[in-house]
Every structure is written in structure tokens, then in C-alpha cells.
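Structural prep section.
Before we set up the soaks we want a predicted structure of the protein with zinc ion in place, mainly to decide which crystallisation condition to try first. Input record follows.
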Amino acid sequence: MQITLGTQPFATVETEALVAYVFENGDPVQGRIAELDQFTNGLLKKIAKGGELTGKTLEMTLVHAPVGLKAARLLLVGAGKRDKFDSAVLRRVAGAALRYLKTRGVHHFVFAAREDSAAGDTAQAIAEGMLAADFESDKYKTDKKNDKSIDSVQLAGFADGERSAAEKGLARGVVIGESQNFARDLINEPSNKLTPRVLAEKAEAMAKQAGLAVDVLDEKRIVEMKMGALLSVAQGSIEPPRMIVITYTPSAAPKAGAPVLGIVGKAVTFDTGGISIKPSDGMEKMKYDMAGGATMLGVMRALAALKPNVKVICVVPATENMPGGRAQKPGDVQTAMSGKTIEVLNTDAEGRLILADAVHYAKQLGATHLVDAATLTGAIVVALASINVGVFGGADQAWTDKVLSSAKAAGEKMWPMPMDDEYREFIKGTVADIQNIGSGKGGGSITGAWFIREFAGDTPWVHLDIAGTAWNDDAKAWLAKGPTGVALRTLVHLAMSY
Ligand code: BES
Ligand code: ZN
Ligand code: ZN
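Run finished without errors. Recording the C-alpha cells verbatim:
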């Protein structure tokens, strides 16, 4: 799908559909909608009077062959109350318009931004929303609905003086939207197609194409480096693990003492639970247990093009979690790369094990500020459902605040969770330094976070639990069912803020 910036006035633009969005207030026919109303001889006022055009969020009003316009259709999308409108709403409006038109056989359309919007951010949000909306999970369908595709979209509604900002915003939005879809594509892959080795190959190919440095540690090097926590999870599978490292270095050499961002993502290509095996109902979803890792790879893909002013090291531990004759067993004691010993009381709490070594390795490689993303716990789904990402911070509150403010700016819902020292007691070990599940009742996502924090040590660190938000169980008007690519935009924003 191509997205370009158009120049033609609305009345004369020949297109399969012209889309505009409408705010909800006493009279929705205001501003740009009033302009369209004039071209169409008062048609929109009439529709509004009849109650079919209210501006309510994501209300769709489709007019065929609108008089006075060259467009074959006019689609008006509700954008809700004007004072609640922001780029997050705009992303959904743009996405919902695209999905609505796609199912109706439209291939090309024009999308008009509203008056008084910041051109760069607006164009970026529209591009991000549309690219995310265009993603479908039909890769393995032999009968693809190719007749249902949007081939090109033109953005309209920007004044001459706004064009250059809009062009730049559009270019940013395309990079971010495509990188998010790159991550979603990986997340969607079934585990027989995407083993740790295949994930590493795909990461390597992406890095080479993007001009990023890449180092994939194979099993031999993982053993040499004594990454015992990662190896303990991997030992149950015939598929060997990989530790994927991708580095972005800004062209202007960073000053001594400059921060180095370390982004770490859990990539369990399939989580059976291991010997502490999961129930079979819904287990197929555990192919998305690599969403954190895929998202970080997507972030790197975006950063290679957007070129932030900070060095970024991405570390992705990749493995399967399988039961079997060689699998680790509850009660086993493992030694992590850092030297800490771990009593594995539940082999299904494997994400924190592989992150222990990945976080330690990211620090060893020079990361001064860490963020990890992981589908870590079912408990976060209980706490926050599929609405908010759970945010767990270390001692450095300023770092947590910085990540949260990036989330806000990127329009991704994230919620800070408590990390009181009392919770640390839950993972105190009896036979080893620490145990991989909490001994107390409840607080499962917090004990998971505390476990990782043990390995971040004094380095500023934030953990994002995306178990509830990385997968969309029901299709939305603006997004297909399946992987969401959540947290990518936040991390891109975070890196770009340097
Ligand atoms: N991958 C799961 C967490 C998960 C659950 C992700 C639901 C997505 C949806 C993780 O490895 C896991 O199994 N966690 C356990 C931890 C428990 C044994 C302490 C869990 O949440 O049940
Ligand atoms: Zn698990
Ligand atoms: Zn898992």
C-alpha cells in the first residue's frame, strides 16, 4: 500500500472514495465538513438533521455518488468529542476507514485531515493507523482475498505551508507502521515455521538490510558465555537457542558517558510450560510468547531509518520451552550468567529465566538504561486485561517516568505497577539465591518483574509486561484479530527523544 500526499481540492479529486472525519457536537457540520457540505449543496446538513451523522466515535456514514463531488463515495467517520480527540483517536479513525472501505472493494481513496491539526503529527498518526489496519493474518491462506486490498491512499487537507511538515510526518509514520507490521508478521508465525534459529536468521537479514550490526550467538557461544538460565529453558527442546544482538550506532560518535539504551525482548517461540505443562485449551496461542523479542527487532528496524541520536543495543534471547527427557524439572537449580543461582520451582516461569541472562548480557555490552518487553505473566491479564501494558520500574523513578511519558506521546496505554521491597521477599530462595516463582499468594506479575530486576541491579530498568496486550483476541474496527505490535511505538519514541 502506497500512501502519498495529494494536492487537489476535495471537490475535483477523482477517487473511489473521499474520507473525512466528523466531531461530535451540537452541529457536526463544522469546519472542513462545512466545506464539503457547501460542495454537496447542503447534503451533509440534511443527513445530520436526520440523525445519521452525529460524529460519535467510529460511526460510519457512507454516501454514494455525492452530488457536487468528483469522488464516487464520500465516507464520513465519527471522531468523537473534539476535546477528547488526539493522535490515538486519529489512528483508529484512519484505520477503521481503511478497513471499512477495504471490505467494500475500494482500492484507492483520499483521506482528508481536519483543519487546525499539527501537520507532521497528523500525517504520522494517519499513516501509522492505516498501515496497522491494513495488516491481515492470511499469509497461509491459499485463497487470499486479493480483490480486497487497498493499493494507495492520498492524504489531503494540508495547507501549502504545512506540506513539508506533513511529508516528514508521513515518512516517519510509514517507517513506524511498516516496522510494527514486520514485528506482527513474526509474532503471527506458527512455531513450526519460526524456531529460534529461523527467528535469528530473519533478524540477521533485517539487520543487514537496514545497515545494523548484528551478532547471533549460537548454542556453543551461549554455553561458553555460561548463560545457564537461558540454557536451562532450551535444554528440553531439540531446537537450539539463539541470543540475538543488534546494535545501532549514531553517525555522530556519542560522547564519553553518553547513555546507551538496552532493549531486551523475550522470544519464546513456543511455550508449552515445559514439565510444568500448560493446559491444552488455548495453548496454541503460546506461539506469541516471542512478541517482546519481535517487537524489539521491529524497533531496531525503525531506528535504522529514523536515526536517533543515541546508541541502542537490542538483545533477544530465543528458545522453545518444551517438556522431554532432557527438560529441566521443578526443583532444579541453575546458575545464571551473572553467577546468581536460581531454584526453578515452575518450568513455566521461563520468560524471566531467559531475560535474566539477556539483561545481564545487555549490561555487559554497555547498556546504561534498560527496557525489557515480555509476554511474562497471565497475572497481568487479570490485573489490566488487554487494555494497558503493565509497567514495572526499578529504583530510578525518572527512567520509569520517561518511559511512561513516551508511551503517552506514542498513544500506547501503559500503567505503572507497584514494586515495593516487600514483594522482593516472595522470590527469596530456600536452596538457591532466588526462586523463579513467588512464594506468597498473588502479585504474580510483580514477582516476575522483581526476578528480572535482580539481574538489572543498579542499572536503570523498566519492564513491560505485554502478555495481555500483544494479542488482540477479537477483531476491532481498526485492527485485525491477532498480534498488535504493542510497545514498538513507545520504544521508538523513547529512542527518538535523545
Ligand atoms: N508465557 C507465559 C505468560 C502468558 C500467559 C503470556 C498468558 C500470555 C498469555 C509465561 O511464560 C508463563 O507461563 N507464566 C506463568 C508464570 C507462573 C508459573 C508463575 C503464568 O503466568 O502462569
Ligand atoms: Zn511459561
Ligand atoms: Zn512464556
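Observations: The longest strand covers residues 311-321.
Flagged for discussion at group meeting.
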